[in-house]
Amino acid sequence: MSRPQSQDRLAQSLLRDTQYRQEFVARVVADRHVRRKAMTGERAARNPRGLEGALRKFALSYPEATEDYPWGHRALKVKGKSFAFLVAEKDALVLSVKLPKTGYQALALPFVKPTEYVLGKAGWVTARIPPRASATGKYGQQCRDWLDESYRAVAPKRVVASLGSGGPHARSAK
Description:
Blueprint: H1 5-40, H2 42-46, H3 51-60, E1 65-68, E2 74-78, E3 81-88, E4 93-98, H4 103-107, E5 112-114, E6 124-129, H5 138-154, H6 157-161
Antiparallel strand pairs: 1-2, 2-3, 3-4, 4-6, 5-6
Helix pairs in contact: 3-5
């Protein structure tokens, strides 16, 4: 006894649908994994207390600072305007900031160059920090100073004025 031809077609159709669903689910899961890696960075997921985590926490402690992920990279913003980009790569932590006052001094360092995509002409610099740099060491302090300058350059004046004279972001009087 053989099954009618319509049952064979139905069985083949169900098999194709099942295979398609399995492939679809596998693609969705893989895509989520890739996006999650891009958004958090492999190194940040392994060591959130490292330099990247410390800089992220420092930058987000500013008034009205937010975090966004355009192009799969971490962007730190104030009032919708980016003041820093943080990217964890295998061989370095990449930090891009706007330095209108100390940009030329920063460019004298061997691990700093003008930011690409015409941002360099607007005072943006990109630093490639070694992966083993300490959050409390010289690289950590320099990056915090750069984040402070960049935030103050990009943030609206009333937001900068709200920093006042106290707190971790206050500038000392010179």
